[in-house]
Specification:
about 270 residues; 2 domains; alpha+beta; three-stranded antiparallel β-sheet
């Protein structure tokens, strides 16, 4: 899958609750406190087995919540049981909980791979706990960013689009829409009401031939975007487009820029 980057959000209220937490505190906060009991028995083949029962508190509506409270004395209804069986050579003590970026923030937009707009001057640590922040950013990204960072990305995308079209068209028209010698050779005629164009291809340069291919390749890609992929989304969520093309992706970022609740929420740039 490779490394991908995102922007997400978290409420300022929730951020205040967790910003000083250690890694273990975050595990307890998002996945419930971890406790366990163990029992040893001999199976049918005479092997000694150890069964570890993990009890962890779960939040109301937790998708992993089981109806176990009524069956086991002393276990609350908001407790989940997780059974792990070990052989005699395995350690019975094993906390399998883990914490991910998606446990903490709500995803707003995926940038995908190979982003080039990263700029650390816009980054602020998410956690006040330095050890926790280091754990989240030593090999990955997990930073608070402000409105200016999103504007920076939008302007970066805009310039990518400008550069791309200039690269394709400048050999034909020039920066000031001045026709090249090849474009000046255009002649048009009418055939039964249809307008036809002819060119003097002896005047086309190697650069123009290369960019002519790029123009055709671009148009073919855009046709696929509309006939096979469809760049807009009518079904799920509030986002307008799933397209990663700069021309369309930039409008999704503008929508987020205008509708994000900067007063009550915090924007997070993260990757893994």
């Amino acid at each position: 899958m490779g490394y991908r980057t995102y922007i997400g959000k978290i409420s300022k209220e929730e951020h205040d609750r967790i910003k000083n937490m250690s890694h273990n505190d975050l595990l307890d906060h998002y996945h419930g406190e971890y406790t366990e009991s163990e029992s040893v028995y001999d199976d049918e083949k005479g092997y000694t087995r150890t069964t570890i029962t993990h009890f962890r508190k779960i939040k109301q509506g937790d998708e992993y919540g089981g109806q176990v409270g009524e069956m086991i004395e002393g276990v609350e209804k908001t407790t989940e049981l997780i059974f792990h069986e070990y052989n005699e050579f395995a350690s019975p003590k094993n906390d399998n909980r883990c914490i991910s970026n998606h446990d903490i923030v709500e995803e707003l937009h995926e940038f995908g791979k190979y982003v080039e707009f990263g700029n650390k001057k816009f980054y602020s640590p998410f956690f006040s706990n330095e050890e926790t922040q280091k754990g989240f950013t030593e090999e990955y990204d997990f930073w608070i960013v402000e409105k200016e960072y999103l504007k920076h990305i939008i302007e970066f995308y805009k310039q990518k689009v400008v550069n791309y079209y200039n690269e394709m068209l400048n050999p034909f028209f020039g920066a000031d829409v001045e026709f090249s010698e090849f474009m000046d050779s255009i002649r048009h005629s009418y055939d039964g009401g249809n307008k036809n164009y002819t060119f003097d291809f002896t005047k086309i340069t190697q650069e123009q031939q290369t960019q002519l291919f790029e123009i055709l390749h671009h148009m073919r890609s855009m046709r696929s975007e509309w006939t096979l992929l469809i760049p807009y989304n009518l079904e799920k969520g509030d986002h307008i487009t799933d397209s990663w093309k700069y021309e369309y992706n930039i409008f999704e970022l503008v929508r987020i820029y205008k509708t994000f609740d900067w007063e009550n929420d915090i924007m997070v740039y993260y990757g893994y």
